[in-house]
Amino acid sequence: MDNQPAFDRSLLIPIFISGCSVIGILLVLLIGRSLNSPAEVAVTPSATRFPYVYLGTEPAITTPLVEETEIEEPIEAPTEDPIFEEPTDRPPVVTTPTRPGAGTPIVLTLPNATNTSPATLTSASVSPLIEGIYDDGHQYIIYDGWQEGGTVHVSHEPGNTISFRFIGRQLRLIYQGGPTLGQVRINIDSNISEILDQSSGTEWASDLLASGTHSVVITHTGGGSVNLDQVIIPDIPNTPTPTRTPTP
Questions:
Q1: Which of 10, 33, 123, 200 sits in a 20 to 30 Å window from 112, CA-based?
Q2: Domains of the chain
């Protein structure tokens, strides 16, 4: 007879339930770990090198060491604007007429870009004065070497000029006279020349002129300083020439 005790089959159910419980616990732990793991973050590599520190974990290293990195110095932008040189000679621009039967092409020559200069303002490039009273600072009166001195224009050096044009039959100039002032020459139409001494008086008037447009140049000739306060173009009508009546 076999004396071994018989296996109790009633224990199979508790053992099976315990095994299922262990497997369930393991599955729960695995699922929770997968859910709590941090998400991957995309890292963009940088061209700049960063210093890093040895923590002294290697043998014979007692002091943390900091490795120097090469730092590129920024390139400074140029402070001055680049100079663009324009070509000294420009080829002519040829325009061909589009109208049938037109003549030869028209050639337009462009000016040299390096030789251009602002136009000099002269009395011929401005409108003439008409009847009226004009202050010394009027835009149609052109000064060369004269300076503003309060309410007048003053010249301290001989050779300085004033130029303008006017329409009328007479010219009057108003100035501030004084014993230390100098002289000016007044030219009208290049055929009338008169010296004005500003050491006395305050006004000068020309003789009657022919009706029309006249050119005036006033030149500081010498002595002390000279000045100009006003320009007056009086309204002088043309006087008709009397017709002689024949006697019967």
A1: 123
A2: 130-233 (2.60.120.260)
